Amino acid sequence: MTILKSAKGFWLSILLSIILFAIIQFLIIGEYLNGFYINTIFFMGINIILAVSLHLIIGITGQFSIGHAGFLAVGAYASAVVSMKLGLPFPLAIIMGGLVAAIAGLVIGIPSLRLKGDYLAIATLGFGEIVRIVFLNIDYVGGASGLQVSHLTTWPWVFVCMMITLLVIRNFTNSTHGRACISIREDETAADAMGINTTYYKVVAFVIGSFFAGIAGSLYAHNFYIIQPSNFGFLKSFDILIYVVLGGLGSMSGAVVAAILLTIISTFLQDFPETRMVIYSILLIVMMIYRPQGLMGTREITSFFKKKKSVEGGPKDDNQHTVA
Amino acid sequence: MTTNTPLLKVDNAGIQFGGLKAVQGVNVELDRGELVGLIGPNGAGKTTFFNLLTGVYVPTEGSISLNGEKLNKQAPYKITRKGISRTFQNIRLFSELSVIDNVKVAYHSLAKHSIASSIFRVPGHFSGETEMHEKAVEFLKIFNLDRFMNEKAKNLPYGQQRRLEIARALAANPKLLLLDEPAAGMNPQETQELMKLIALIREKFDLTVLLIEHDMALVMGVCDRIYVLDHGQLIAQGTPAEIRNDPKVIEAYLGEEVS
Amino acid sequence: MELIQQLINGISLGSIYALIALGYTMVYGIVKLINFAHGDVFMVGAFVGFYSITLLDLSFFPALLLTMAVTAIFGVIIERIAYKPLRNATRIAALITAIGVSLLIEYGFIYFRGAQPEAYPSGVLPTEKISILGVSINSQSIFILCTSVVLMIILQFVVHKTKIGKAMRAVSFDAEAAKLMGINVNNTISATFAIGSALAGAAGVIFGTYYSKIEPLMGIIPGLKAFVAAVLGGIGIIPGAMVGGLLLGVVESLVSAAGYSLWRDAVAFIVLILILIFLPSGLFGKNRREKV
């Protein structure tokens, strides 16, 4: 019973997103949208990828990483090197951006994920800064003056990458592997005592998160005409962190909604960066004091539509099952 | 392993924090199917001893073996997979997860479907998850927790949370179950139910149980044998009747009532 | 001789890190919070010092004292408004709030004042070259070093010899027990923020006199590095923060001297990560375990 209904829900949301894609594609091709709006839409997609990738690390696995811009940078530079220096096609550059960022995630994750809480936060922040300084010192990618990149990012690419990110992270979360990650978030000692290899899952979540941050980096790099190390400072990391926190730690749809809202806000405040940061920071503080669980808490948007069902039975966070 | 090796053999084990010997020279042997109590005054090192058995702490002296296999320096999750599972003194459930998901986490190490199969939703993922789900439902029925299946663990009443924690520990399929003060904070009626539950799990699962408890009625009522720990050292062991009359135990508990 | 010159630069820089690190370490010791806004208190201190020297026409020491008073109050305000409501919240919520407060101070400051930098007037402190054993040392460095050392000695005195210091130590050891013993935990925490912020303010003035240029985002990097210094020395441990700060300053100066000045900022973070991984309790810290 449930499997039919929820599968219906799944295909319905896929259908809706394809319609959304087609509408936007139509508006872009027909030149009904000007560059400003198109750019905002691209940013929305890229920020959703970033938000959801960090959501897996912080919201699901509970590992407080605040250097996510480092992986964005690695992806951006790696893909730019592949497309600009090696002259390889854009799709390959996107994938390489993700893979190189994933490797960076692995290399950084293995030592630092032994740390907990505040210490992990500050170590990841440190790693983010080191990544930035490394790019600053590599002449091959232009050092401080940056690297020229062609504008290759298009709406179909943004859409496809965003959908893949959402699906992969949703599928991972709604499985025994995702539950293992959540158990680490909830109580690492107990997870360990239940036979969960906590180190392994922390690293896995970190690597998957880094991979998609790298994908976002590829799209980001090819949406600008130039990338510079200064684009990837920890203010960028905080931006991504804010999406996840505002949306609700543990809620993927919350992260998506927050990314959309804040992208709109920051686009309109583009010319007033201070105002934007003041609003962001007040938002953060007020949120933490009055609603620390974020907009959505750990719930997903879908749970608002099926409140009744969860009482009847059936695993509510994996809607692909039948109830025995 | 031959049947005459004890299930658990703790040989002269101890741990030192800085200069403080929290546990020292402890020798414990548990045979299959036994229900053994571990008692002692507050701060005697009982929980520390559990932490040694489960790998949370690494013993600084002596050795611990399960079924004749040394467990020294193994990560806690590996020890759990080898067959020692536990509950905690202060309940440590995965509070945001549902009751059934708490149990499924304990099944995780048996999962056959890989991360990739879950990400790409190949048939193996569905069959693996379905099997896990069905198993967990059946399991919860034994503990009468199936009616709370989709409740978040944190929303359960206190007694049921204790019950779920024991169920979760059992779901990890242990050979040796360690219960750390399961009756703490329970009223007499809940304690009665707990005693029934312990009897039930002994009957249903082929298990050895080591139990830390302050409720003497419970310990004396259900345990085959009892170890007494004081100041990190074993001061007595024997049947409930022997322990009740042991002068050293009475001395350790001076001021506390041994009923 | 070049090396000694660099060492002295390093010590001067290190004493600034140490002063900021003290505030981090004291606050962390007492409320287990990485007060990200601490670097911004340092920035505010630099500006208060600047305005008291240029507008109020004060000389170095009165300006230093005024700044310390202002930043102490500022620190208490931050604590009361933003952190106090979160006393029982999760660590992550507190950390995010601290990040928010930091951003708010930085950008609120820019919003109301503008982002343009200022330069401390020269001659706030005498800048003669003093020659000791063939090494010429700027008298400013000596002034700065002495000021920092005096402040640290006063701090040690406050923490170990006064009633409030005793209360601070008690609360950081066990807040619940301290409360039961009749210690006003809220006031003690505020006092800790006040003292820590006063030291950061002093560091701001010293930084301004030494490096001249100040700007609203100047607190971020020294703030982070001071945190590294606190971790290096063992977080929560006051002498540790001093040693950590000095050590970090010296290492950075030596790296610059060796010709890798572009990597200077990375050094602190590399040190941080090495320390966190190999010696997480720092040089002077004791190993603490989570109670299970």
TrEMBL record, chain A:
Keywords: Cell membrane, Membrane, Transmembrane, Transmembrane helix. Its main location: membrane. One of its GO terms (cellular component) is plasma membrane. The chain crosses the membrane at residues 9-30, 36-58, 65-84, 90-110, 117-135, 155-173, 200-220, 240-265, 277-293. It is found in: Cell membrane. CDD domains: TM_PBP1_LivM_like. GO terms for molecular function: branched-chain amino acid transmembrane transporter activity. Pfam families: BPD_transp_2 (PF02653). It is a multi-pass membrane protein. This is Branched-chain amino acid ABC transporter permease. The lineage of its organism: Bacteria, Bacillati, Bacillota, Bacilli, Bacillales.
UniProtKB/TrEMBL annotation, chain B:
SMART domains: AAA. Residues 8-256 form the ABC transporter domain. One of its GO terms (biological process) is L-isoleucine import across plasma membrane. It holds the Pfam family BCA_ABC_TP_C. GO terms for cellular component: plasma membrane. Keywords: ATP-binding, Nucleotide-binding, Transport. It comes from the Bacteria. GO terms for molecular function: ATP binding; ATP hydrolysis activity; L-isoleucine transmembrane transporter activity; L-phenylalanine transmembrane transporter activity; L-valine transmembrane transporter activity. This is ABC transporter ATP-binding protein. It comes from Peribacillus cavernae.
TrEMBL record, chain C:
GO terms for molecular function: L-isoleucine transmembrane transporter activity; L-leucine transmembrane transporter activity; L-phenylalanine transmembrane transporter activity; L-valine transmembrane transporter activity. The keyword Transferase does not apply. One of its GO terms (biological process) is L-isoleucine import across plasma membrane. The keyword Cytoplasm does not apply. GO terms for cellular component: plasma membrane. Coiled coil: none annotated. The chain crosses the membrane at residues 6-26, 59-78, 90-112, 132-159, 189-211, 266-285. It holds the Pfam family BPD_transp_2. It is a multi-pass membrane protein. Keywords: Amino-acid transport, Cell inner membrane, Cell membrane, Membrane, Transmembrane, Transmembrane helix, Transport. It is found in: Cell membrane. Belongs to the binding-protein-dependent transport system permease family. LivHM subfamily. PANTHER family: BRANCHED-CHAIN AMINO ACID TRANSPORT SYSTEM PERMEASE PROTEIN LIVH, HIGH-AFFINITY BRANCHED-CHAIN AMINO ACID TRANSPORT SYSTEM PERMEASE PROTEIN LIVH. This is Branched-chain amino acid ABC transporter permease.
